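#help-structures

NK: newbie question. if I give both the sequence and a SMILES, will the prediction place the ligand too? trying with flavin mononucleotide
OV: yes, paste both and it writes out the complex. here, I ran yours:
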Amino acid sequence: MKIIYFSVAGQTRRFIQKSPFTNTLEITPLDPFKAIKEPFILITPTYEREITDPVFEFLAYEENARYCMGLVGTGNRNFAELFIFTAKDLAKEFQLPILYSFEFSGTTRDIEKLTEVVEQLESQTITRSNLL
Ligand SMILES: Cc1cc2nc3c(=O)[nH]c(=O)nc-3n(C[C@H](O)[C@H](O)[C@H](O)COP(=O)(O)O)c2cc1C
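OV: that's the protein plus ligand as structure tokens.
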């Protein structure tokens, strides 16, 4: 499973660097228009819309939303009801599930949990790919 992520202040990038995931891609604000042709999950931090626009542009590009198996929101629980609102907005706009959430650059436990989620998805992907 490909892991695609966005990172403004580097926390999400740090999470990826300490994770076992190797098939990864960072969305950049300068060129979010990458056409993806394989199943992936998308990890996004939470900021006001003008900062996270590249993530929306990325998902709206070509068939990207169709290949997206789900979203992972990262944020800060001090924001209370605004916790991971970017992932929630994307979920609504693109009709995608939220698979997991964590704070900042994540803990060892977050890496373990997300790895489990990815493994479960991989076992279902063959079925889902048939529908693409
Ligand atoms: C200006 C600012 C606004 C933020 N707003 C929210 C928010 O509304 N909800 C939330 O869950 N996290 C919020 N965060 C926390 C970030 O989403 C969180 O720290 C995330 O891990 C940052 O990832 P990044 O370093 O990869 O950009 C905010 C952080 C900053 C600096």
